[in-house]
Specification:
Blueprint: E1 4-8, H1 12-24, E2 28-32, H2 35-44, E3 51-54, H3 63-71, E4 81-85, H4 90-99, E5 103-106, H5 111-138, E6 158-166, E7 170-177, H6 187-209, E8 211-217, E9 222-232, E10 240-249, H7 254-270, H8 279-292
Parallel strand pairs: 1-2, 1-3, 3-4, 4-5
Antiparallel strand pairs: 6-7, 6-10, 8-9, 9-10
Length: about 290
């Protein structure tokens, strides 16, 4: 099945040229001439694109504003997104990447570079979708478990926890805060099943590189951000122990996940050798990010 790409470009000649390149490389293309049209397409379709390739300088709604609208929608915010633009100054590139776009390619594009970037981002997106489905299917029940909360308090349910790999028993919950939660499923069960599902997808090599992923855990109607890395442990196989630092909250948007990732990366780095986790401080820092949004 051909991958579907949403191409957003207001210049007709460039749109047709880029579309031709992609169609000649076995991609299916839908097009929009500005951010407003692109949003209308996303709202109307039952088949979301596998990737969005978007210009920046466009009428009605530019690429930056379209991207911000897109990532605020939980159904769209994990679609791989590439900015394609003549704005190629270092400041522009940094700004585009700061927003959280997957890539930033300057015009005129190098065809091979463009195709390589698209293929890589689509493969990553598919891996993420597979992981999301596996977690949804594995996490205890096919039915969504409703979690009651008072109006305006949805953001207040925040849980942080660490799961580590034990060579004898497999993944185990190392620490959680707060210890008492109102979840209908134990944090230990959720953490172990997330670790078991995500682990095979990323593999041992990627753990050593460290990376994170934002997932919707639909069964409990919560978002999760999982950060995978390793800690030094001479008793573990290879002297390294795999670790998953995670956050659960009612909602975590894309911008919040970028900041949470930085905090978890710093937290794991600080605890590479000293395994005395200040989990309450971690909970406070992440809670401040989500509360401010």
């Amino acid at each position: 099945m051909k991958s579907l790409i949403l191409l957003v470009e207001d210049e007709e000649a460039l749109l047709e040229y880029t579309k031709l390149i992609l169609e000649n490389n076995e991609y299916k293309i839908i097009t929009a001439k500005n951010g407003v049209e692109a949003l209308e397409i996303l709202e109307a379709t039952d088949h979301l694109p596998d990737l969005i390739l978007c210009d920046i300088m466009m009428p009605k709604m530019n690429g930056y504003d379209f991207f911000k609208k897109m990532i605020d929608n939980p159904d769209w915010n994990l679609i791989p997104f590439i900015f394609l633009t003549v704005k190629d100054s270092p400041e522009d590139v940094r700004f585009g990447k700061m927003l959280g776009a997957d890539d930033y390619i300057a015009k005129p594009v190098n065809e091979m570079d463009l195709l390589a970037s698209i293929a890589g981002k689509i493969n990553r997106g598919r891996r993420h979708n597979i992981l999301s489905r596996q977690i949804r299917n594995k996490l205890l029940t096919d039915k969504k478990i409703e979690i009651s909360s008072k109006k305006g308090e949805e953001k207040k349910t925040i849980i942080v926890f660490l799961v580590v790999w034990d060579d004898k028993i497999g993944p185990k919950l190392e620490v959680v805060y707060p210890k008492k939660t109102k979840l209908p499923i134990s944090v230990e069960t959720i953490g172990i099943q997330l670790f078991q599902t995500a682990g095979p997808m990323y593999g041992t090599i990627d753990y050593y590189a460290a990376q994170g992923v934002l997932l919707r855990v639909a069964n409990i109607d919560m978002d999760s951000y999982l950060y995978f890395s390793t800690i030094d442990d001479h008793e573990a196989r290879g002297g390294k122990r795999q670790i998953m630092a995670a956050t659960l909250a009612q909602r975590i948007n894309y911008f919040e996940s970028l900041r949470i990732s930085e905090i978890l990366e710093e937290f794991v780095a600080e605890n590479k050798e000293v395994q005395e986790y200040n989990i309450k401080e971690l909970w406070k820092r992440i809670g401040e990010i989500i509360a401010l949004s």
